[in-house]
Amino acid sequence: MTLADLADALADEYGIDRDAARNRVEEIADRLPAGMYDPTTGTLADDGEAAIRDQVAADYHGMTNVSGRHDDLLAGIREAADQIAEHQRLADEWMRRRDEMIRTAIREGVRVPAIAEAAGLDRQRVYQIRDRRR
């Protein structure tokens, strides 16, 4: 079996990205004892394939440092997602405030070009906000 074929099989089996699987398989193969892997042809002996499968299984069943790294990555992703959600909530709140101030300014007779400039919008968008479109 080739490294590429094994990586593709492991990617499917563990639901991981193919490039990540290929990188991990190559990393493990580079440390295999002589005779288990032929780097010139990219082929594995049966015991080389078994060794790589065992290591990947350990990686994805929480038995090595890889799973700790994955936990750290997932925690970072969760934190980023939480921050995005919070900032989106704040942006939505500020947009509602801005839009209400734009409507108030128009009702009080402030010129639309001045409002557009202050808000960093074009006049068409100011009119859309006034009319509560989009």
Explain this structure to me?
- The structure is a single chain.
- The chain is mostly helical.
- The N and C termini lie far apart (57 Å).
- It has six helices and two strands, in the order ααββαααα.
- The protein folds into two domains: 3-63; 76-130, no CATH class.
- β1 (37-38) and β2 form a beta hairpin.
- The mean pLDDT is 91.
- The chain has a two-stranded antiparallel ribbon with strand order 1-2.
- The longest helix is centred in the middle third of the chain and has 43 residues, at 65-107.
Topology:
Blueprint: H1 3-14, H2 18-29, E1 37-38, E2 43-44, H3 46-59, H4 65-107, H5 112-119, H6 123-130
Antiparallel strand pairs: 1-2
**Chain oligomer state:** single chain
Distance between the termini: 57 Å
Q: Could you say how many structural domains there are in total?
A: 2
Q: SSE order in H/E notation?
A: HHEEHHHH
User: How is the largest sheet built, in terms of strand order?
Assistant: 1-2
Q: Helical amount among residues, as a percent range?
A: over 70%
What would the keywords be for this entry?
134 residues, mainly alpha, 2 domains, two-stranded antiparallel sheet, 72% helix
Brief description of this entry?
The chain is mostly helical. It contains six helices and two strands, in the order H-H-E-E-H-H-H-H.
